[in-house]
Write a structure and sequence with these properties.
The complex is a heterodimer of chains A (161) and B (740). Chain A has a single domain, classed as Beta Barrel (OB fold (Dihydrolipoamide Acetyltransferase, E2P)), CATH 2.40.50.180. Chain A is an alpha+beta fold and 161 residues long. Chain A has a five-stranded mixed beta sheet. In chain A, helix 3 crosses helix 4. Chain A is globular, with a radius of gyration of 16 Å. Chain B is built from twelve helices and 15 strands. Chain B has a domain of 153 residues: 2-Layer Sandwich (Beta-Lactamase), CATH 3.30.450.20. Chain B is α+β, with helices and mostly antiparallel strands and 740 residues long. Chain B is elongated. In chain B, helix 1 packs antiparallel against helix 8, helix 9 crosses helix 11 and helix 11 runs antiparallel to helix 12. The two termini of chain B are 38 Å apart. Classes of the chains: A alpha+beta (161), B alpha+beta (740). Chains A and B meet through strand 3 of A and helix 11 and helix 12 of B.
Chain lengths: 161, 740
């Protein structure tokens, strides 16, 4: 399977390419006052207001550096849950050094063996030649509360469904 | 006798009290006489005006009476005339009648025979008319109050015989048988008969006794128009009698009365009215005992004229033995009756008024004298006390001043203390010393003398002390003068030393002049060297200017290189951006290929190839960027170096310029040094001369010092004289005793 790699701090992480909608250059975000620090704000993605989460901030409390390779990965939260239509709940993830994709066999992944309560979004690990790549679980990125705040409309839709 | 201050004060006070009283008495005396004169004059004027008023009234009264009488008479005459005409015509009958005559001028004749006169049927014969006047005439007389008398003409001359009358048979009235002669006793024609004979009515005053009877004569004409008789009409003298009685009763003052004197006929110079009826008809001169007085009176009245008042003051005697009294009469002339009407008063009756006034003035003088005496007494007592108040302090003051004059100030102070205790005025003065406005002059004088003694005491003490001080000071001055003398001699010695020193200076100056000549030579050598150095420097400055120009060119070239590098950097930027976009594109392509599964495998290879190209491009762009960066830093350092070099060159040029100027300055300085050195030489010579002059001045100074020495000995003499003078002053001051 194809993995889109990026860096948080000095370490390489990855997302399954199947979950990625598109990679776009960073644009100006409208900040959300009194939101958690890792929520960078809202931006206009193809006519749709989309929240952006700074992964570096989420993981290490250090904001992403402003570089050419720092980009926004758009994922569709709706896409992660079965039975939902695509293109409904976009979420932007800001991360550094998004320039590469990697082809990794699914069998090469191993469970990390750790379950960190504050970081439930850490997923399986694969060992490379000189480094270790850890997958992220995008559906666990946002806490339930935050998710309700950022996507209230869908919640109501779910309640009806 | 000494006329002391106290006596003087008493004398002045008494004088001040007596003099006004005396003056008042004298003035009162003078006033009394004047007042009396004045009063007499006033009283006299008053009396005169009063009497004049009375006389004027009398005159008016008489005139009124006269007018009344004449009017009445005329009215009666007219009535009678009318009555006669009513009786019928006047006729002379053929028959005659005999008339007894009362006043025939021919001696022994007492009867005349005349033709009978008739009016109408009434005949006038003695037999018919005797004792029985014609009834109609009587009636007429009674109505009019006038008497009527009928006359018959006796002869051509005009003698008239009374043939009828209604008047009572009195002495003054016509009676039957009386003849009215046409020629009077004095031989003159009687004007009344003359008028009647010529046919006119005659109106005139008859004067049987008072000259006041107003009578109208009317001619009677017969059938031939011949005046054959006349009718006389006159009033009863009742009015006149009333007037006379009223005059008699009028009295003026106590004994003054009204008098009337006749001026015509028998009554001339006789009383008509006077103070009593018994004097009527008497000659005035015989009554007053003065001859010719009445003529004066009448003449004065006539001269003044009808109705004009005249006054006369005279002594009037009531008898020959009488002393007579002063009398004032005011009188006037009443022409119709020929009366002089007057009113007279005796002046002594008014003496009482002036006597009373004199009495009041005497009373005033008496009171003035008493007041004067009382005032004198009071003044004596008061002045005695007041003079004591003034004189006692003054005598104290005199004693005190005598003591001060003798110079014994100590005793004077003791006396003042004694006076302070003994004299109450002095005590008061001392206690009120702070309020001088409450003190009298003696108190102030006492305070002043006291102050003077105190001041004098302290002054003399001060002078005595000062004398001692002055003596000490003069001794000190003498000592100072001696010291000064020593100083002056020292100065003389110093002067000699200075002379020697100045000679030495003169010699040194000559040596210095020689040294200066050597200096002059060295300076000209230096001038030459400096000129050569300046030439070299000028060449160097020119080369430096060239260098600077070249530097500027290099700098501009470097700037150009910098600009080029900037352009290249822009291009590299663009390339980097393109590579980035390509990378992104390849990423998205790979993702999309992955999502496409097997169908996207080929595309994913392409995407990977594109990404590899993009990476290479990025690397190449990075290298170019590095190269450009290196080049730019080299250029920048080159520019900096050039700038530094240029500023060094500029600095060098400035330094060379400054050096040139300095060399020039040195040359100028060296050139200017020459004349200076000559000036120094001149100065040295002048100094040498100056030193000689100083020597001379010093010798003069020596002489002056000896003069000063002489002056100092003079000063010493003066000081000893001052000392003597001070001793004299001290002995003089010691006359004043300031202590026991």
């Amino acid at each position: 399977m194809l993995v889109l790699t990026f860096r948080i701090g000095e370490y390489v992480y990855g997302l399954e390419a199947g979950t990625v909608v598109e990679v776009v250059p960073p644009t100006v975000c409208k900040e959300l006052p009194r939101s958690p620090d890792y929520v960078k704000g809202l931006f206009n993605y193809r006519g749709k207001v989309t929240p952006v989460v700074d992964l570096s901030m989420l993981a290490t409390d250090v904001p992403c550096a402003s570089r050419m390779s720092t980009r926004i990965i758009l994922i569709d939260l709706a896409d992660l849950d079965s039975g939902e239509e695509r293109g409904e709940q976009f979420l932007g993830l800001l991360a550094e050094n998004i320039t590469e994709t990697l082809k990794v066999a699914d069998s090469d992944f191993e469970e990390s063996g750790l379950e960190i309560p504050d970081a439930p979004w850490l997923g399986r690990v694969v060992r490379g030649n000189d480094c270790m790549l850890q997958l992220l679980k995008p559906q666990r990125l946002l806490s339930d509360d935050l998710r309700k705040v950022l996507f209230p409309k869908d919640d109501s839709g779910q309640a009806q469904g | 006798m000494r006329f002391s201050l106290r006596r003087k004060i008493i004398a002045i006070a008494c004088g001040a009290a007596i003099i006004p009283i005396l003056a008042m008495s004298i003035i009162t005396d003078l006033l009394e006489d004047r007042l009396q004169d004045c009063m007499k004059g006033e009283v006299r004027t008053l009396i005169e005006s009063h009497v004049s008023q009375l006389t004027g009234d009398l005159y008016e009264e008489c005139r009124t009476a006269d007018q009344l009488i004449s009017a009445e008479t005329e009215r009666a005459a007219m009535a009678l005339e009318t009555l006669m005409e009513g009786l019928g015509r006047v006729m002379i009958m053929k028959r005659v009648s005999d008339w007894p005559v009362n006043n025939h001028r021919a001696q022994g004749v007492d009867e005349v025979t005349v033709p009978v006169l008739a009016i109408g049927k009434k005949e006038f014969t003695y037999a018919k008319r005797k004792g029985k006047p014609l009834p109609i005439l009587v009636e007429a007389s009674r109505i009019s109050g006038a008497y009527c008398t009928m006359f018959q003409r006796l002869n051509p001359e005009g003698d008239m015989l009374v043939v009828d009358t209604t008047a009572p048979a009195e002495q003054l009235n016509w009676k039957l048988g009386d003849i009215f002669y046409s020629l009077g006793n004095d031989g003159k024609v009687v004007s009344a008969i003359d008028d009647v004979l010529s046919g006119r009515i005659s109106k005139r005053y008859e004067n049987p006794d008072y000259g006041t009877r107003y009578t109208i004569y009317i001619p009677l004409r017969d059938q031939d128009n011949f005046v054959t008789g006349m009718m006389a009409v006159y009033m009863d003298d009742e009015i006149l009698q009333v007037l006379r009685k009223s005059m008699l009763k009028t009295s003026i003052g106590k004994t003054g009365y009204i008098w009337v004197i006749g001026t015509k006929g028998e009554s001339k110079g006789h009383y008509i009215v006077s103070n009593s009826a018994k004097n009527d008809g008497l000659n005035v001169d015989s009554v007053g005992g003065r001859d010719g007085f009445v003529h004066e009176l009448i003449a004065q009245a006539k001269e003044a004229g009808e109705g004009k008042l005249s006054s006369k003051t005279y002594v009037w005697r009531t008898g020959m033995d009488d002393e007579g009294r002063d009398k004032l009469s005011v009188f006037t002339y009443f022409k119709p009756w020929g009366w002089v009407i007057g009113a007279g008063v005796y002046l002594d009756e008014y003496q009482g008024i002036t006597n009373r006034l004199t009495g009041v003035l005497d009373y005033l003088v008496e009171w003035l004298s008493i007041t004067g005496l009382v005032l004198l007494g009071i003044t004596l007592v008061v002045s005695f006390y007041a003079s004591g108040l003034i004189a006692t302090p003054v005598s104290h003051m005199v004693d005190l001043v005598k003591i001060i004059a003798s110079g014994d100030l100590h005793q004077a102070r003791e006396t003042i203390a004694a006076v302070d205790e003994s004299c109450p005025n002095a005590r008061k003065a001392v206690s009120n010393a702070d309020h001088p406005e409450m003190l009298d002059e003696t108190g102030q004088l006492y305070l002043a003398v006291k102050g003077m003694v105190d001041n004098l005491y302290s002054l003399i003490g001060q002078v005595q002390r000062s004398g001692i001080q002055v003596t000490t000071s003069s001794t000190e001055i003498a000592a100072s003068a001696r010291q000064l003398e020593v100083t002056v001699s020292q100065q003389a010695t110093a002067t000699t030393q200075i002379s020697a020193t100045s000679a030495e200076i003169s010699a040194n100056s000559g040596e210095l002049a020689g040294a200066m000549h050597h200096v002059n030579d060295a300076a000209s050598t230096m001038d030459n060297l400096a000129f050569e150095g300046q030439d070299g420097l000028k060449t160097m400055i020119r080369i430096m200017d060239d260098l600077r120009g070249a530097t500027l060119v290099i700098t501009s070239k470097l700037d150009e290189i910098n600009d080029r590098a900037n352009a290249i950097e822009g291009i590299v930027n663009t390339i980097t951006k393109v590579a980035d976009r390509t990378n992104l594109l390849s990423l998205n392509a790979a993702i999309e290929a992955e999502k496409a599964g097997k169908f996207g495998q080929g595309f994913s290879v392409v995407a990977a190839e594109i990404r590899r190209l993009a990476d290479q491009t990025s690397v190449a762009a990075l290298e170019i960027e590095d190269m450009i960066g290196n080049m730019r830093s080299s250029v920048d350092s080159g520019v900096d170096e050039m700038d530094k070099f240029a500023s060094d060159v500029r600095f060098g040029a400035e330094k060379a310029g400054k050096l040139g100027k300095k060399l020039e300055g040195i040359m100028t300085g060296v050139r200017e040094l020459n004349p200076r050195i000559e000036q120094v030489n001149d100065g040295m010579t002048a100094q040498a001369e100056g030193a000689g002059q100083i020597s001379e001045a010093m010798s003069q100074l020596s002489e002056t010092a000896s003069d000063t020495s002489d002056a100092l000995s003079e000063f010493n003499r003066a000081t000893s004289q001052l000392n003597e003078a001070v001793q004299g002053l001290r002995s003089e001051v010691s006359r004043f005793k300031v202590s026991e």
